[in-house]
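Please decode residue identities from the backbone states below.
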């Protein structure tokens, strides 16, 4: 346990940049959190992308993350309807297990109705969880990203779907993107040591490579 605490503190020291009073994020684990959410049935989905708390503050709001998502090819769910139970996450911030803030889906080129296509034929999607409790108030957004099958296959995650979904989102995000007159600049950093590689505890038994990607998003 002592060794784990030292490792956790080292990770937090490396990945928590204290600048202008802000932090990128806090490692959820020292305060009893997890980098796997609770998907029900005993398994969890990896929180495999983090939008840094050092991003432009406007991006970290509910409206802001929606607009940013629309800039990189995602949008709100088909006609605003959500099917299935929400998942929850414990980000070690003192809020315990909290349901997802929202779920956003690949929009296939149409921010209004394109996610209906994703619901039908499958594609990429992500859940949003905010780290804002009194024990770890970074404001960072933890995303559970995955690529899923079509409706006829019950929206199951494709083989290697957690790694694939993460990589597709990051590829769409990095660089300069524009939406509704706002320009976003995004840089990515791969993090290791926060999530164990493999399939232990992972929903559907789908293995991951253990890499978490930290995105810092700046409105320019």
């Amino acid at each position: 346990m002592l060794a784990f605490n030292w490792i956790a503190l080292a990770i937090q020291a490396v990945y928590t940049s204290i600048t202008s009073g802000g932090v990128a994020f806090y490692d959820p684990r020292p305060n009893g959190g997890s980098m796997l959410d609770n998907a029900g049935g005993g398994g969890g989905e990896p929180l495999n992308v983090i939008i840094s708390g050092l991003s432009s503050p406007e991006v970290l709001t509910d409206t802001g993350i929606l607009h940013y998502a629309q800039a990189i090819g995602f949008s709100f769910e088909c006609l605003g309807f959500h099917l299935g139970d929400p998942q929850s996450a414990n980000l070690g911030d003192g809020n315990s297990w909290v349901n997802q803030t929202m779920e956003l889906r690949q929009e296939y080129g149409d921010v209004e109705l394109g996610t209906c296509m994703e619901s039908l034929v499958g594609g990429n999607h992500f859940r949003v969880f905010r780290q804002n409790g009194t024990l770890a108030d970074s404001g960072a957004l933890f995303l559970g990203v995955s690529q899923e099958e079509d409706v006829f296959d019950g929206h199951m995650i494709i083989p290697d779907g957690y790694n694939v979904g993460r990589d597709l989102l990051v590829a769409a995000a990095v660089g300069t993107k524009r939406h509704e007159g706002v320009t976003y600049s995004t840089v990515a950093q791969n993090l290791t040591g926060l999530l164990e590689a493999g399939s232990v505890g992972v929903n559907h038994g789908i293995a991951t490579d253990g890499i978490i990607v930290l995105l810092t998003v700046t409105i320019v």
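Observation: The first strand starts at residue 49 and ends at 51.
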